[in-house]
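Backbone geometry tokens:
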Amino acid sequence: MLSMLKSIYQNFFKQREPHPLLIENKQFFKKFDQSGDINRYEFTVFDTELTGLSFKEDEIISIGAVKIRGLKIIAGENFCSYIKNKRPPSKISTLIHKITPDILKNAPSIENVLPEFISFIGHSFLVGHYIGLDVKFLNKALRRYMGGTINNPCIDTMKLAQVLKEEEWGNYYDRFNYKISYNLDDLSNEYGLPDFISHDALEDAYQTAYLFLYLIKRLRYGGLSTMKELYMAGKSWRWIF
């Protein structure tokens, strides 16, 4: 009996071989060139909805993503899927994103969705609002079901918004606002961007895509032009203006 339990334990925690998609992904980004103009690169803007916020216990139940090329949203080129998990969404999370167990009843499993999503993002830069949370849960699922993680560089629109605000405060010190919100909806309203349904993965991806393009336009006006500079802007914003 003890031997059988030990075998089950070892098999459960056995390291999976990396999926071919993740192997190719890692090899590509080893020699990735970030010196080109931002306009040359492809971006995938994505968002996830979760069963809750516990990294240990909760899972992704929805992924939405849109593509940007030539600094334009590509109409009709998007990804959207509900995901069925063993753990149902918590009552609190259901109140937020309105995804009920009935909606997920016939949804595909995470094992089926992940390869499709990794194929969709390809060699693009990933963009999200507070993207660290989404990538953290995504990589957790990838480690479990595909044996590795993604290597796509990530850009956080919340950080870019902070960069822009800090520059505005630097030029106009009397406009400094301690109460500014970096919430996605609040920023979109402030900048006069289109409205989308909140806490829906695909709708939030579109909302973030519009915000991203607006911020890039403003930052490019300040002198930012290459992908490398886009990253430097997040680390030391003053030099680009």
The two ends are 68 Å apart (CA to CA). The domain at 25-236 is CATH 3.30.420.10 (Nucleotidyltransferase; domain 5).
